[in-house]
Structure formats: structure tokens, C-alpha cells
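worker-03 picked up job from queue 'complexes'. Input manifest follows; two sequence lines, order preserved.
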Amino acid sequence: MGAVLAAVLGASLVGCSSTGGKRAEERAAQAAEGRSAVDTPRWTFAMVTHSGDGDTFWDIVQSGAKQAAVKDNINFLYSHHDEAQQQAQLVQAAIDKKVDGLIVTLAKPDAMKAVVAKATKAGIPVITVNSGSAESAEFGALTHIGQDESIAGEAVGDELDKRGRKKALCILHEQGNVGHEQRCDGAKKSFGGTLQNLYVDGTNMPDVQASIEAKLQSDKSIDAVVTLGAPFADAAVKAKDSAGSKAEIDTFDLNAKVATALKDGTLGFAVDQQPYLQGYEAVDLLWLHRYNRNALGGGLPVLTGPQIITADDASELAEYTKRGTR
Amino acid sequence: MTATGQPASPAPAPGAPDERLLRTSPLRRLLGRPELGSVVGAVAVFLFFAVVADSFLQASSFGTVLYAASTIGIMAAPVALLMIGGEFDLSAGVLVTSSALISSMFSYQMTANVWVGVFVSLLVTLAFGAFNGFMLTRTKLPSFIITLGTFLMLTGLNLGFTKLISGTVSTKSIGDMEGFGSARKVFASQLTIGGMELKVTILWWFVLVAIATWVLLRTRFGNWIFAVGGEAEAARAVGVPVIRTKIGLYLGVAFAAWVSGQHLLFSYDVVQSGEGVGNELTYIIAAVIGGCLITGGYGSAIGSAVGAFIFGMTSKGIVYAEWNPDWFKFFLGAMLLLATLLNAWVRKRAEATA
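worker-03 finished. Artifact:
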């Protein structure tokens, strides 16, 4: 036991790294920290999302929300469940706690309808984020902050046209996700060439890669592959290499790997919906509502995307993705 | 060993108790109950959250906790019975979604009174349960494999059929159809008592647990369940209808899945076809925390209710305590281990001193 400990300590002393690692992360964190900039009382805002466990995207949303919470002197609470019934129960729990503001996602709007109504009836201001732009106002939310998936899809179609692509593949990694269908449908609508949908099992990365590989092998004329989530872009790149295809890989959403891949030209472009902004603005707008009765959007959703990111922007963003804010 | 050479045991003196009957103190009998470990655990969890989470003790919070517990507990009771009978049902989670989907889509497509859909759904859901039981007893394959098969098939059917019929992944709203109001009263209404909102599922839960307990402890069928879970071959040899018992247990799970499914449908008027995956383990966990043995032959229905209550308290208590929910699963796992260890220890002590 002691020997192991000594060995570990010894190794960490000898093998210092001057780049990356925990220390680089701490330096980055120092830059992002801050103190409250307002003297309003410490309100409690709760965010309840439809995220699964350990999702990078929602981590970024949370870091945005937390940054705004620090600035606005907010006690920020976060909970999530990917099942509608459980998510509704969590919202109910937040209402029980008598929070001062509520941020919810409406991925499954019908399940959230009653409980959101209960919150507004209890005098808790509600802001919806990410999904639910169509239902937000009807349910009595102050505003909606997110990306319109159809518009984002159409932006992809246009960008593919601009790059002279003729035959594209849209990779859906979650069967039955309405937002995903909307993205591919939007792309199909504005794209001049043909676009095919390919369903893969997103929980099984090797299977994702194998499915894309098989498709690229069987149809050599495919010259673009669009994945709907950042982690799947990497699998698509690997599939392209082993299939010997010349297709360009493009993706929705960003992460550190996507940013570096954009920089070195492995990926064509990425469509970002700026999750950090969704968390940050939601908290900030709730604060503004509490403090000053302000509202943004004029009854229409506030769009955080699509933002098309190419090699030109990638080098700056690579740094921000590493610290988990893009 | 023979009896020769040993003095014949004297006949018990008149009035003295029969030596074959052992008198146990009430305390020891209490210690021997399968749900004891879970009750101790539940009290501990309750006290814990009462101390660390200030809004946990509010009446409205308690209503939310009970509701969360009831949605698990309705399924956990028949799953506990099934586990006492020595079998698993991995399809229980998605069967709930299937049941809701069938009810909703039948009513919508046929433009029928929603009660028609509700009863069609009952029949079809029971048929799925019967299929599980029938396949199990016919093929003699482990229930793990059989129900894993039905679990995957149902997951696919849910998505495939919903998309085929409704065009999207969720069903169309049946909220404006005839009979919806009365069906909602039965499956998804709520009552406010003293600031506490009580959902009707809590009533369903209590009734189902009461019935399950009565069946288990007071009927012949209950004895059969313990017998087939303990040793199926021996049970068959003494005349227990093993096949009928097991099919009956699967029908019980299907019935509870129907109740849960209708609750899902009538609280939200639409159903998401991809849901329910993973819940089967939740039910099993609740049953195991409640003292069910994974090998069968031992356990209780009340225990499953306590297990579900622990589940509800933990999942919502973490929110009330303003903790990071990332730790929820860890907490649950630790609780599961502790409850089973406590159970095993208590049982060993009780048996050793008996």
C-alpha cells in the first residue's frame, strides 16, 4: 500500500507536463470565476431538463447558468431526468421548494403542461429553454430560449449547397427524437442535392461507426455526412477513413474534439446552438424579470442558433471548448 | 443412526406444550420479517432528509414523495410476488408504455370512447403477460432470457407501431374524446387534503399492496408462490400447479403495468413511445430493498412498498436538499447494498436463535 502510494507520488513528481492536464484547467477556471455584480437578495432558481445522465451538452448549459447565477447572486439548482413523468415530478419538487424562478425544457411538452401551469399559478416565473419553442408561450412561460431545429437544418442544407455537395447522409443517433427528425427534414428541404436519413444506435459507438462505414462502402457517390451530435462526428470520420470515402463530415453541436478537427480540416463545418447561452440567458432573464420585470423576445422565441462554425473560427473556439463553455 | 440403545423419548406430560411447536417471542418474529431491513432503512432515510432538507417535511413535499413512490410501487408489488416465485420480468418497464400506447392509439384510430381503448389495452397487456408466462413454462428457458426477448420486442413494437400509425414518436392527444374525463378521474385524479396533494395512484398503490399481501399470506395461491420460488420441482412433486402459478404471476405484473400505463396516458393525454426502458430494474431494486431474495422463495409485498417509498424519498429528497443529482445513483446503489446486507444479517440472526 505504502509502496504504491510512493510510486504514484514519485511518478507525478517526475512526470510533470507543462501543457494540458489539471493545472491548465485550473488556470482556465480562474479566468471564468467571478463575484456577484448585483445587490439583489439571493433568489433561488431551479432548472429541470430532459437530459440523460452525464451529457456534455447539458454540462455546458449548466456552466452558462452557473456563471450567470454567480453574477446575479442566484442560488442555482439543477436536476434532470430523461423520462417525461420523472421530469414533471422534479418540476413539482421545485415548486414544493417555492423557488423564485423556474427553467424547464419542453422536450415532451404534453407531460410538462400541467406542472408548468401549476408553477405559473403559484407565481413562479417560468422560462423554457432548448426545446419547446412552439408550446412555450401557450404554457404561460415568459419566453423561450433555444434553437429552431428546422431553421438549423435549413442552414445546414444551404451550407452544403455552398460547398457544392450533391449527395448527403443525415445520421440520426436517437430513434424517435422529434428535434432530430426536424433537423434532417430542414436540411432536406433547403439542400439542392439528395439527402438520405440513416438511423444508428447512439448508445453504441462501434455500431455507429460500423453502420456509417457500411453505408459509405455501399454508396461511393455520397460526398457529405451530417451527424447530429458532436461525439458522432468523430465516429463518422473514422468510418470515412476505413471505408476509403472522400465524403466531407459535418456536424451539429460542438465539443473540444470537433473544434480541433475543424481546425485541421478533418471536419467541414459545425452548426452550434450555443448551449452556454441557453443556460446563461435563462438565468439572466429570470433575474431581469424579478428585478426589473423585463422580458426578451416580444412573445417570440429568442434564438441561440444556428451558428455555422468553420475552420476560420475554430482556433479561438478550441480554447473555449476545452474549458467547457462552448 | 438408529434409535436402539437410546431411551425412548417420554411422551409429553399432559398439559405441557408440544415440543415440535416452538414458541417465539413477538420481537423475534418481527426480526424474522423480510421487510424489516427496509423499514429500518426507510426510517433512516426519512430522518436523514428531514434533517438535511428543510422543505422535505412540508405537506406538499410529502405528497410529491408519495406520488413518486406510488408510480414505482404499483409495479414493484407484483414484481416482488414474481421474484418470490423465483422469476424475473425484464419487460415490465416497457410493458407500461405499451399498455398506454395501445389504449391511446386504439381509442384515437377507432374514434371510440376512451374506455373501449382502456379495456382493449387491458386484454392485450394481459396477453403479453400470459405470453411471458407461457413461453417460460413451455420452453423451460430462464425467465431472464425470455423476458429480455419480450423487452426488446416491445421496445421495437412501441416505436415502430407508433411511428407507423401516428407518424411521429408520440401519440395524438385524446384529451378531447368522450370518456376521457371519467377515465382521468379513475387513473390520474388528485385530491387535496390539508395542503397535501394526493394523486389517485397512491390509492391504487395501497390497494395493490394490500391485495398482494393478502394473496401471499392468506391464500393457497400465496403458498404456491413461495413453494415454486423455493424449489419448483419439489413443489410440483407435492402437487403445486407450477405452470398455472407462474403464468398467474406474470398476469399480475401485466395488470399492474396496465394500471401504470393508463395513469401515464391520462395524466398527460399523449404517450412518448420510447419511454419505460430501464424502469424494470427500478421495480426489481424496490423489491430487493424490500427484502425479496433474488433466488426466490422469500420476500414480501409490503417490503416492495417500503422499497418504493425509499426510492421516492431519495429521488426527491436530493432535490429538496439542493444536492447535485449526479450522485443519486450512487446513493441508491449504497442503499441497495445496505438494505440487502441488513436483511441477510437480520435473517441469519433470527434463524440462528430460532
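worker-03 released lock.
Chain B touches chain A through 36 residues (CB under 8 Å).
Residues 37-48+55-346 of chain B form a domain with the ABC transporter involved in vitamin B12 uptake, BtuC fold (CATH 1.10.3470).
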